[in-house]
Amino acid sequence: MEELRKSMFVALILAVICSVAVAYDPLDPTGNITIKWDIQSWTPDGYVAMVAMNNYQQYRQIMAPGWTLGWSWAKKEVIWSIVGAQATEQGDCSKFKGGIPHCCKHTPSVVDLLPGVPYNQQIANCCRGGVISAYGQDPAGSLSAFQVSVGLAGTTNKTVKLPKNFTLMGPGLGYTCGPATIVPSTVYWSADHRRKTQALMTWTVTCTYSQQLASRYPTCCVSFSSFYNSTIVPCAKCACGCGAHKSMGGRGGKSHSDGCIMGDSKRALTPGVNTPKKDGAQLLQCTNHMCPIRVHWHVKLNYKDYWRAKIAVTNFNYRMNYTQWTLVAQHPNLNNVTEVFSFQYKPLLPYGNINDTGMFYGLKLYNDLLMEAGPFGNVQSEVLMRKDDRTFTFSQGWAFPRKIYFNGDECKMPPPDSYPYLPNSAPLVTPRSLITAASACLLVLLLVMR
């Protein structure tokens, strides 16, 4: 009986640890999306609040069709109006005889407005279709905001009840939000920085991402090759699930796949093949790995003091392109990056002085858009790194990255024992050319001695 209790206690501890660690990213340990509510003014039956979503993740953005924010009201609150966003459903507002609220649902879901809406519906940092950039790539674009007028709510700091059960779709599953927490009121400075005001009340909600919650299978894979070995190490077979992989869907989360087509088939050239489906179903090119994205790392050249690697990213999804994509690599020689061609590069320092992680992303208006599968569905660059005599080697797979992330999701790596290996330093059989050269030298030496 005592052994059973111990086993149950250990299992409980492991479950708690795993549930906490599931949303932890070792390459971005402090990355999260923080949602801040600032009450700006009181109304006769509630308040007006500015809601701001700050993406503090270094390399994970929210792509189209954008974010969806949901919560549950603590009492019987309603949304009288929203500027810069809209609720997806109005709900039952039949009890209101005069003005009709914007949303009467107890569990509203709010989405961003599309670009180009009338100016009287806009507010600062709104109306980008729910797209939020990664903080490490574009800090100015990593914020989204809207203003909401809440009725049938408290009208003082003591009577306001905080919303609960927050959910965030970005655009699919993966995010888990904690409870709302009251924090010190936000301070605002005037334009001339001579006066400051503050919100009447502020609370925040923190949401973290877990790849395990987002998808059962990886969404990308990695392949290797090198100049010193003719072997090309491909992505692992069925690295992304071979048809069972669920794609990034619409606002409702994950959706099914419509199978795959051969890259040279007529269907790949038919009009409309690149049109996204409403349910987000992906259409992949038939491959051995069945991944939407493949990242290839090629050890290209070796110089006296430097070495060069080529990185190529290929899209195998006919129905999705990737705007403002990001690629993160972990490699010990990234502390000596000399030059990056065709990509932007930013070192990531999640643990202070350990400089072995970097983020690559496209040049604006040049290759920051990874097109759908096809002849233009790839981007590539080369990286020149300076050698460190204390650590540099081509043996034991050292020249290949330890981890690769694409758009914030970790890619499936090849097995370590399959990495391209260095050829033997000297063959057992002497080459014929070497014998010929030695014979010629011996003949010249005999002629001279005569």
UniProtKB/TrEMBL annotation:
CC per GO annotation: plasma membrane
Keywords from the UniProt entry: Glycoprotein, Signal
Range of residues in the leader sequence: 1-23
GO BP annotations, alphabetical order: cellulose microfibril organization; plant-type cell wall cellulose biosynthetic process
Annotated COBRA C-terminal domain residues: 219-420
Stored PANTHER family: COBRA-LIKE PROTEIN 5, PROTEIN COBRA
Family: Belongs to the COBRA family.
Name of protein: COBRA-like protein
Organism: Aegilops tauschii subsp. strangulata
Organism placement in taxonomy: Eukaryota, Viridiplantae, Streptophyta, Embryophyta, Tracheophyta
